Amino acid sequence: MPFLLLMPSYNQAHFIREAVDSVLAQDDPDWELWILDNSTDATPQVMAAYADPRIHFIHEPRRMDPGLCLNEMLRLATGEFFSYIHTDNRLGPNYVSAFREALRQHPMALAYCDQYDIDEDGRGRKYRKRPPVFSSARLFSWDSLGAPFAATTQLAEAVGGFSADDLADDVYFALKSDGLGPRVHVPKALVEYRSHGGSRAESLGYHAVAQAIYRSVLKVYGARAAHLPDPFEGMLPAIQRHVARAHAQARCLAGALLAKVPQGAPLWIDDTGPASFWLALACEELGRCPKGFRAARPGTLLGLPVRALAEPLESGAQSLRPRRKGGDPSSLGQDWAQPFRWLLRGLPPTDQALKRYPASVMCSLLVPFHHQHPGGAVRIQGQGPLAAYLAYGLETIAQLPVLGFSNAPGVLGLAQIAGEAGGALWNVPGGAFGAQGLSWRMRAPIDSKAPLPAEQS
Questions:
Q1: Close Cβ partners of 202 (under 8 Å, ≥ 6 residues apart)
Q2: Which residues contact 424 (CB under 8 A, 6 or more apart)?
Q3: For 365-409, what is each residue's pLDDT tens digit?
Q4: Domain annotation covers residue 404
Q5: Residue 434 lies in a domain
């Protein structure tokens, strides 16, 4: 049977010729390329030049979600194996043959490969090795498994096809397939993956994509079969280790930066990413609470204002940034000696723990709570860095408003709340809070007798 290459298409006339030509160059000729196109550009004219009978081009003027396109192509085509491919990427000549071999191992297999990252012009070829094994916690995060991948059509039928409601329809498919068959890693770069401003991920931005995938994770987690292990089982020590390391690094960095700022000078923190959150928290703990954050878009974060980066600071104010370089050259950031300060305190000399959530850690913290959440605002019961980190994740990833901290000191602009002041109560993991409120707990007990397929590489 032909290997099915499924390509949803929307306004990529300037890239699609390269993608199709890379399909024609496959060393395994037994394939069919299905393209469901909703373009308003010259894509139909570009495709009119191809007469190969293995290429099935369908132009549908109505705009469709990629998931709907994929489901329609799966309905129309006949084959044992398929792959979801993009109009802006280029396949290596062994793409079909390598994935066909990997998928023969199991009727419900999903296979994925390494890749070359290229820029908009098809240059800057950089090898990206994907994990030989995806841990469950990483799979159920926004750093999950997405295209490029291939799977059996039997697996597609079992998971109900692709979602039409999820931004990352490829990730949703991988999440739904977990536990049904093995994930097979092909340790070769089979595709050149193009990054450019017109892609959905680039145009939306990192945070919007992370929030969208988080919603998919939450949805699939809630519908997960009871006999499957909880993906976040055993993650609390990893959460606590990350928080302890990031907090210690931030305290060291904040001490060095604050030593250069006159007492009484108003403080602002550049950006609103994880490193900026940790720096703001550390400054407050050292007695210098910042007035707010500065970012491209104004708003609020943890009860503090977020001022537009282009807006000038008041007289005498000083902005701090957690990295060596930033958008405002007048901000104080890391100096050359900061890695040595961290080393002297027994900490890693790089800022990886500061600048990353990481995805698996933050999802492991949020999802077991959020799955139980009735909706609306949240009060946090507990104190310390983990409580503050939970509040930060609630606002930036889960997109739930945080009212404050129940019977515990406030953090940054979030106040202490006495008694019951509305909102759902989330108890910080590791604390002893009794039966009141939501606790960090797994969705269902693990059935140790349920057989699970092993990952392969």
A1: 195, 196
A2: 373, 374, 375, 376, 377, 378, 379, 437, 438
A3: 999 999 888 778 899 988 899 999 999 999 999 999 999 998 788
A4: yes
A5: no
Amino acid identity of 170?
A: D
Assigned domain for 345 exists: yes
Verify that 24 and 87 share a domain, yes or no: yes
The burial of 160, by beta-carbon neighbours within 10 Å (0-12 exposed, 13-18 middle, 19 or more buried), is given as: exposed
Where among 188, 223, 258 does a domain terminate? 223
Tens-digit pLDDT profile for residues 263-300? 989 999 999 999 999 999 999 999 999 999 999 889 99
Counting Cβ atoms within 10 Å, is residue 179 exposed (0-12), middle (13-18) or buried (19+)? middle
Residue type, 171: V
The answer as to whether 282 is a domain residue is yes
Q: DSSP code of 134? A: -
Instruction: Tell whether 160 and 195 lie within a shared domain.
Output: yes
The DSSP call for residue 313 is P
Q: Quick one: 351 and 366 in the same domain?
A: no
The residue with tokens 């306004």 is: 11
0.70 exceeded by pTM: yes
Residue 453 · residue 106 · CB < 8 Å: yes
Over the stretch 169-220, which tens digit does the pLDDT of each residue have? 889 999 999 999 999 999 999 999 887 665 565 556 667 888 889 999 999 9
Mapping DSSP to helix (H, G, I), strand (E, B) and coil, where does residue 246 land?
helix
CA distances in angstroms from 95 to 23, 26, 52, 149, listed in the order given: 9, 7, 19, 10
CA Rg value for the chain: 24
The domain of 177 spans: 3-223
Same domain as 300, residue 179: no
From 223, 248, 275, give the residue that closes a domain: 223
